[in-house]
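Render this sequence as a predicted structure.
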Amino acid sequence: MTCGARIVPSCRANQSSSKLTPATAEIREHRKPVPPENMPVATRSWLEYATFKMSSESRNRRLLMNKGRGITPRLKSSIESAFQCRIYRGSIPHGTDLFMDLGQSFGIESFRTVFDIGANIGQSSQTYLERFPAADIYAFEPVSTSYSKLMALSVANTRLHAFGFGMGKAPGAFPIHVNPNSKRNSLHHAYAESHLETIQINTTAAFCTENGIDRIDFMKIDTEGYELEVLEGAIE
């Protein structure tokens, strides 16, 4: 059996995009920019109509205009330079927002099963709960301290299912290097400040069989160099 993850076309392969206007754009985070004191009054007035949208995946800041369609190229360049952002007029290019691209290509409601392998304390899982509203999120984290925080997060979210083991190419118990910075926990790489902890590993194929899952719509793997082994374990 193969647990089939959906293969997403390259974001750069198709430059076409549907129109996204400020009136219909989903603004996940609003912030009023604070312009430099020496910025011209005209610029400061225009900035009163601007909002920031923070991408949860790439962390690139983008500026969506509510008004000010008459902005000149010179003013646009000045604002982008001052605030280290990008201004898009009327539409956002394909390849800028992963979840927008997935929604346009497949329909975001079609994503029902999401795997977060190497979930840590649930940072990505929280994003997936928001951006895949019809999906169940299966989050896997083998390190005990990180898993306890992930488990606490799942208690408040019925669509988030937390599991205290990792994924690999074969089931078993394995030593992992645990770092004070949990994002650096690794089965392969040791750091001076690391200590060893024994964790349990399962395979994606076995987990799918045991839980009646025949399709994975979206899979994220962040296992610090152990990604190939995780993929090998998805084939039975």
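Summary. The radius of gyration is 21 Å. Confidence is low (pLDDT under 50) at residues 4-33, 42-68.
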